[in-house]
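Entry 14. Ran structure prediction on the chain below.
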Amino acid sequence: MRRIPVLLTCTALLVATSLPAMAQQRPQRPQQPEAESKAGEYYLGVTGSHFRHKNLSDGNGKTTVTTSGIVIGKFLNDYVKVEARGGAAPSPQEETADLELDIDYYASAYIGVYYHWTMFSRAYAQFGMSHVETTATRTSEDDDGNVTVTEEPYLDTSMSRSWLVGTDVDFIGNSSLFVEYGQLHQDTTTSIRIRQWNVGLRLDF
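Output, structure tokens:
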């Protein structure tokens, strides 16, 4: 009868000494590589944009102005970046047959936050201010056939708050492709809003 407690004690000791060895032999999950930090890097980019106007012509008109621009910025750390943008429309866009809208130029400054959601891609949101200069060219003809052409800004306020949300993906070398959506301008007097869709190529250095 005394052999049973001794046998149980030996078995317990054998199991206790075997557990660490079994734990070491258990295969470990490979660690996922971390995304490369961009802290301190500058970047330069080019954009193509569709600026969608809303609330034109007493709130009923909508039109899209196509623009191109440049971007320059810096990643302050692994979560915050700052940048400046500017551009212009290469040609006027028509709302109606007798009205042409043109963005003479725009300039924006942003501060944003970004997040590495994969090794090769980041999501970000940016907030800032934009200055937009515009021209509306209207052509009218009276009953006698006389044609009158008038040009004037179609925005009463040129400064406005802006925002962007977007994502980028690594492309070749230190370059990235990105796509964005946001608001370029909101006129507080006329209620005209300019929404922006942007695609572009960025080079980090």
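The mean pLDDT is 83. Will compare against last week's run tomorrow.
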